[in-house]
Amino acid sequence: HVDSGKSTTTGHLIYKCGGIDSRTIEKFEKEAAELGKGSFKYAWVLDKLKAERERGITIDIALWKFQTAKYEVTVIDAPGHRDFIKNMITGTSQADCAILIIASGTGEFEAGISKDGQTREHALLAFTLGVRQLIVALNKMDTCKWSEDRYNEIVKETSNFIKKVGYNPKTVPFVPISGFNGDNMLEALPHCPWY
């Protein structure tokens, strides 16, 4: 869904995994601040087009490769905006695993799963395109103070619709995160003991 933090989360994950250095992030932070978009520093790791940076949305797919101790990873960041669904399909069709990033903020999750939202459609497209491994990242959990009740509410709702799409919710990890702060992405958090 638009504004769920897909590019920010993806860019921050690449940074945390060593795929980009801090000097480059500092450069993006400075450039983003100059455009009044200081919070977009991680999104700009992947959002390279001038229009993407000006509008604050992903338009085209972006690929980024990095290695961990065990894996060679290619990240494909896909647009969430309905106008660019063809690009999202192009990116998703190449994936082995999809991370469905859901905004957990009050009203944001509900907008994403509404009839006009993109969250359900993205899950359906991923399954239809043959992506059988799914991770659901509940982003912006910091905005609801890492509420276990909110987490459980979103997991229940999301489990229902991904099951209808074809996924088995029992095999899908649901991870509470803050993509902007980088919280709970690689290491467990003390302020999220229930997870």
UniProtKB/TrEMBL annotation:
This is Elongation factor 1-alpha. GO terms for molecular function: GTP binding; GTPase activity; translation elongation factor activity. It comes from Penicillium viticola. This protein promotes the GTP-dependent binding of aminoacyl-tRNA to the A-site of ribosomes during protein biosynthesis. It holds the Pfam family GTP_EFTU. Residues 1-195 form the Tr-type G domain. Keywords: Elongation factor, GTP-binding, Nucleotide-binding, Protein biosynthesis. The keyword Coiled coil does not apply.
